[in-house]
């Protein structure tokens, strides 16, 4: 997990001057006293960036940081390293335990008060750096502290690489909360804001199933993180070799988490199997992962009421895109959803354009419930259709779901069986659920009740498009009850034919058993 100060623009890189000398072991070419200090002035604050070593004075500074900032900054105890371990790692470094690898605790101090810290590792085998975290005192955010601490951290890692050889770092990896899977209420900073900030700093998401193993016998693995990276070789922007990612993860587990043999760790084995099935590991700038691509502009605007000027053209676009059929509804149903009160959850109607001043070219209508989202309609017209705007729109839609109800399990949509291509949808991360699902009665919504017409039911987890399906029977039935009650206005959803047939098609599963299906696409 990483946290840093949100800033309006990327400041220029500072030139740091060495404040204290470093003694170098001539046999190893490495400093044996790593107390290095850098002075920097930022927004009327003079900071000292101090790399800690294993002595009483630095341990006291580390303890102050841990007590005052770290525990608050990492509210999830499963993500939190112990103070004793951090001190132990500094002792091991002084003893030469890391060999060609390295470990850094870099503290930003204002006078004698710690205001920010980063912990990072240099991994010799992949010639890569890893930033375990970068944490800034919330009172110092917006002053450039995070960016300057990052500069100093990256400089330390580059120096490690130069000692190892002339090539320089291949990349710098980071571990952070996945905004789509981590509850913002549990975080010390809005995870979407954090990810956009790191995107401006050159970092992006690595597209594979990353899980942080348990840090101790008393802790659990962490499943709601994402591994990102800053590629320092141009070719890596087109994707990372799986072997490189595997070496980074293995090195991180070995040198940062002290797992003696990562190959024997079940969590690593699952990640290694995922990587082995890929030809490459996609790398996506975090801003694009979150649905914002400067090369593909997309403007979304909420329609709050039927009196909004965007409501009439949005209804005309809806009628062009969704002619009468088993899943079509009348305009009055949109008006009722905008003006009504749901038993639970939130409703949204969006007008979509290329730019704020552009003509209307798309719409989205969707609900968020604690049990999962339900998307009624998404439509794009030229110049947005066929221009890779749909993945961006879905990412924005999923961010809204997180902001509505936290990280829900995912979202559903229903469609006539001839309306969609399962292969095309699976590339976007959708699973065609193997269930018996028929159209709910929706005459009250202004639709046509054509009887029990068979429909396809699709599901997508929030976030990455390549996630394995982890939907249980009980989760699906709870979500279906929510949308039948709130979207279709059915007071007793469990008595409807739709519910009865859906439940019957799942009766071979226990409540907590996963629904078994595979996406129709191969690995990227």
Automatic annotation (TrEMBL):
Keywords: Transferase. One of its GO terms (molecular function) is acyltransferase activity, transferring groups other than amino-acyl groups. Residues 1-34 are annotated as: Disordered. Residues 7-34 have a biased composition (Basic and acidic residues). The keyword Transferase applies. The keyword Transferase applies. Residues 47-233 form the N-acetyltransferase domain. This is GNAT family N-acetyltransferase. The lineage of its organism: Bacteria, Pseudomonadati, Planctomycetota, Planctomycetia, Planctomycetales.
């Amino acid at each position: 997990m990483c946290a840093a100060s949100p800033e309006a623009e990327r400041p220029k890189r500072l030139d740091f001057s060495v404040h204290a000398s470093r003694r170098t072991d001539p046999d190893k070419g490495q400093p044996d006293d790593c107390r290095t200090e850098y002075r920097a002035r930022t927004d009327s604050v003079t900071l000292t960036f101090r790399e800690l070593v294993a002595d009483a004075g630095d341990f006291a500074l580390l303890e102050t940081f841990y007590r005052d900032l770290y525990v608050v900054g990492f509210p999830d105890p499963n993500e939190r390293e112990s103070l004793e371990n951090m001190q132990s790692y500094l002792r091991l470094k002084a003893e030469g335990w890391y060999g060609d690898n390295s470990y850094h605790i870099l503290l930003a101090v204002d006078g004698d008060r710690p205001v920010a810290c980063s912990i990072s590792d240099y991994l010799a085998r992949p010639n890569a750096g890893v930033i375990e975290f970068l944490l800034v005192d919330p009172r110092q955010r917006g002053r450039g502290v995070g960016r300057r601490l990052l500069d100093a951290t990256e400089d330390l890692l580059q120096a490690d690489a130069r000692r190892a050889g002339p090539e320089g770092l291949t990349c710098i990896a980071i571990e952070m909360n996945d905004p789509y899977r981590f509850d913002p209420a549990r975080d010390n900073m809005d995870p979407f804001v954090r990810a956009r900030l790191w995107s401006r700093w050159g970092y992006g998401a690595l597209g594979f199933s990353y899980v942080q193993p348990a840090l101790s016998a008393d802790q659990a693995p962490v499943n709601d993180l994402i591994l990102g990276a800053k590629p320092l070789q141009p070719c890596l922007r087109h994707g990372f070799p799986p072997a490189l990612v595997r070496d980074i993860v293995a090195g991180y587990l070995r040198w940062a988490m002290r797992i003696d043999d990562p190959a024997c760790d079940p969590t690593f084995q699952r990640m290694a199997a995922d990587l082995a099935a890929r030809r490459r590991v996609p790398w996506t700038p975090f801003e694009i992962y979150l649905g914002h691509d400067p090369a593909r502009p997309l403007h979304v605007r909420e329609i709050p009421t039927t009196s909004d000027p965007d409501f009439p053209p949005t209804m005309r676009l809806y009628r062009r895109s969704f002619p009468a059929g088993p899943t079509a509804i009348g305009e009055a149903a949109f008006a009722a959803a905008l003006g009504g009160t749901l038993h639970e959850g939130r409703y949204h109607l969006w007008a979509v354009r290329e730019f704020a001043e552009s003509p209307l070219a798309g719409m989205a209508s969707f609900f968020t419930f604690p049990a999962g989202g339900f998307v009624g309609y998404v439509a794009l017209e030229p110049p947005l259709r066929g221009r890779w705007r749909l993945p961006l729109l879905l990412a924005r839609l999923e961010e809204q779901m997180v902001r509505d109800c936290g990280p829900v399990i995912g979202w559903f949509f229903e469609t006539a069986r001839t309306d969609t291509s399962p292969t095309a949808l699976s590339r976007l991360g959708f699973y065609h659920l193997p269930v018996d699902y028929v159209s709910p009665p929706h005459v009250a919504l202004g639709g046509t009740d054509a009887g029990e017409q068979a429909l396809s039911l699709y599901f997508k987890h929030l976030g990455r498009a390549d996630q394995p399906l982890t939907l249980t029977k009980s989760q699906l039935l709870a979500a279906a009850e929510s949308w039948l009650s709130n979207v279709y206005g059915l007071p007793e959803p469990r008595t409807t034919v739709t519910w009865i047939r859906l439940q019957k098609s799942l009766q071979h599963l226990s409540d907590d058993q996963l629904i078994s299906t595979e996406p129709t696409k191969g690995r990227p």
